[in-house]
Amino acid sequence: MTDTFRxxxxxxxxxxxxxxxxxxEAAELIGRAAGDAELLDTLIRRRLTGxxxxxxxxxxxxxxxxxxxxxxxxxxxxxxxxxxHRAGARLPVTGTAIDLCTGAGALARTLxxxxxxxxxxxxxxxxxxxxCAVANGVEAYWxxxxxxxxxxxxxxxxxxxxxxxxxxxxxxxxxxxDTLAFEGPLSYDGGPDGTSILRRVLAESPHYLRxxxxxxxxxxxEQADALGDDLARLGYREVNVLTxxxxxxxxxxxxxxxxxxx
Length: 262
Ligand SMILES: C[S@@+](CC[C@H](N)C(=O)[O-])C[C@H]1O[C@@H](n2cnc3c(N)ncnc32)[C@H](O)[C@@H]1O
Known about the structure:
Blueprint: H1 3-16, H2 22-33, H3 37-48, H4 53-57, E1 59-62, E2 65-68, H5 81-90, E3 96-100, H6 106-114, E4 119-124, H7 127-135, E5 139-142, E6 157-162, H8 177-183, H9 196-204, E7 209-218, H10 223-226, H11 228-233, E8 236-243, E9 249-256
Parallel strand pairs: 3-4, 3-6, 4-5, 6-7
Antiparallel strand pairs: 1-2, 7-9, 8-9
Helix pairs in contact: 1-2, 2-3, 5-6
């Protein structure tokens, strides 16, 4: 059986099973099997259960760079790339950034790529994510939000960025079936209205950000509006709501520290 025949056959199988990018996926699975027919059968079987392709191939692409993704670790989404680039733009060339809830470390790596002279530290509460991020070359620490950074950071930082869990608990059931079955609620559950962790990040970031430093968070739906009062009360200014090309809200960007009174 030639690779070409196998590719079309596998693409047809995946397409019939409902996978939208069937041909690309077929090529990736065949590439991962590297000619081992038994392994290819195992990989196909895994994919047909809905297991993320990135867990099966062990990698995905984020902002044009290959990122290792271990089984159990959230698969970085292309929708988060603009937030990562925006955070990179706010990071001085020799500055310091924190990537909260780093997962595989995709955002941290993008920041380091934008600013090779900067220091980027990251945290995640899932030890599998921390191990994966470290394998991706990220200075990652295990623990809750900022908690592990006490000893790692001596000075206030320039940027805090995060794709933290922000799906309202009641909406978890609306996620694609495979998403929740495999990646699990730890990556998604943001509490009753989805903003529980976001609000904690807003409240804790001023302890780590320098005055004039930037906070950038991925948010969904109405959450940018819902966070407005907290942002003002906590002393953030220049709050920008980040939208995608369809006009959908994707994130917030804010500067910490009130400007001097005139
Ligand atoms: C939506 S995923 C995003 C991962 C990564 N930022 C990305 O975009 O690829 C959320 C991540 O937050 C982590 N997490 C959940 N609660 C956390 C907490 N309290 N402190 C640190 N990490 C947490 C999960 O383990 C998961 O890796």
